[in-house]
Amino acid sequence: MFTTHPDIGERALLRPAPQEAYGAYQVSVARTLEDLQQVVAIRSAVFLAEQDCPYDEEFDGNDLCATHFLLKRQGRPVGTLRVRWFADFAKLERIVLLPCDRGRPGLKVMLAHMFELVSRKGYQRMIGQIQARLWPVWSRTFKCELIPGRSPFWFSDYEYREIEISVPVHPNALTMTEDPYLIIRPEGAWDRPGVLDASVTRSNNKRSAA
Questions:
Q1: Is residue 91 pLDDT above 90, yes or no?
Q2: pTM of the predicted model, to two decimals?
């Protein structure tokens, strides 16, 4: 779970979430099987049940190579999105909220944390494939534009458009010269010592014994 305010990520939003929303919601990267089950439950409730998307089109073979974000309110999973990584851009996908949380500020909280992580990884742009009918919504939510010269296309019975999203530059973007212990920490938790940091003491004791 993220513990810091996503100052950089919030800059990608056209209007920030109310400050109190960051206390009401929790956002985390899905790291466990239980986390992924919650992601699947939310997407199944909306995309499969509400939008009648075929199972094999919704769960498309990309979930185990993506980073998933999980939004909770009062401990209850209410939203999710996923990001996939390419050479010089990231791709925003599968943004979804349960009906009980639509129109609330949780979406902006989740997006701000997502943009923060994307920026920290050094990306400055993302692409998204959005349902064409939702362009007015996304164009008022974060800094984006329709990609010029790209025609609408269809899949899973909906018309889609491609957008480019501007990601703010992070002053502490990760590079290959980072401390090696930082790089091996869990995704998004680079500033907190991880389990492998703690293993250093054990390794030092073994060297001393030798």
A1: yes
A2: 0.93
